[in-house]
Specification:
This protein has one domain. The protein is built from 7 helices and 2 strands, in the order ααββααααα. About 10% of the residues have low confidence.
Length: 241
């Protein structure tokens, strides 16, 4: 039970701290770009020849579907929308914190914040960098392929990248390292699902700025999550012991 409590407390504390900082960066860096893109979406009527437009609402996560149906409830701009952003980012931090801490325990547990940052960067590579090469963060009014197909490719890419990194880091032979590289490359050889057309009212410069802001926000999110987890784990484990 002590190990379970350690994992839970480390993930909760690191996730809350990272979520608060990450949401502040998100509100400053990416939300203004999303709001700017929504003006193009409103001006253009229907966003794109897809069922819904995609937004990235929390750092460290992939862009997801958000329907803009007039009959569907949505948070109002301002305090309500920003408050939900903070809540969901904190919950995201806790969820990813559980994954990070639990996975690191299989390798002996985090010993210090330096090691935690390395695990965080591995999470950034698996959950943001690798999927983003095929499916970069999208703004409202941008076309996208079928949601289920994109989700399947995203999940497969995350799993392949995480497995490949594990084989490279913990494999005991060159053959396993080569297999790890092959796993990382495989999803990109298959290719991410793409829309029939890339035509969009969103300016290319706005989309580029959003990609940079989203990736940098996610980088800080994962590095901070790993660093906090690595700093907290030996202290909480020692207290539990």
């Amino acid at each position: 039970m002590s190990l379970f409590r350690t994992i839970l407390f480390v993930a909760a504390l690191a996730g809350i701290g990272t979520g608060v900082v990450g949401s502040a960066i998100h509100l400053y860096a990416t939300v203004p770009l999303i709001l700017q893109a929504e003006t193009f979406e409103s001006a253009g009527g229907e966003a794109a020849p897809t069922e819904a437009a995609t937004h990235e609402h929390a750092p460290g996560t992939a862009a997801h579907e958000h329907a803009h149906d007039g009959d569907e409830w949505g948070p109002s701009d301002g305090i309500e929308r920003n408050g939900l952003t903070v809540i969901f980012t904190v919950l995201t931090g806790f969820g990813f914190g559980l994954l990070l801490v639990a996975a690191s325990e299989l390798a002996g547990g985090l010993k210090n914040w330096h090691q935690g940052v390395l695990w965080g960067l591995a999470g950034f590579a698996a959950f943001t960098l690798a999927p983003g090469l095929g499916l970069p963060p999208e703004l409202p009014a941008m076309p996208a392929a079928d949601l289920a197909t994109r989700q399947l490719w995203w999940i497969g890419t995350v799993a392949a990248t995480a497995g490949g990194l594990a084989l490279i880091a913990f494999g005991r032979s060159p053959l396993l390292a080569v297999l790890g590289v092959a796993l990382i490359v495989a999803p990109h050889v298959i290719g991410a699902p793409q829309p029939d057309s890339h035509e969009s009212p969103i300016p290319a410069s706005l989309h580029h700025s959003f990609i940079v802001a989203s990736v940098m926000t996610s980088f800080v999110f994962w590095a901070l999550l790993g660093g906090l987890a690595g700093w907290l784990r030996p202290r909480i484990a020692g207290t539990a012991a």
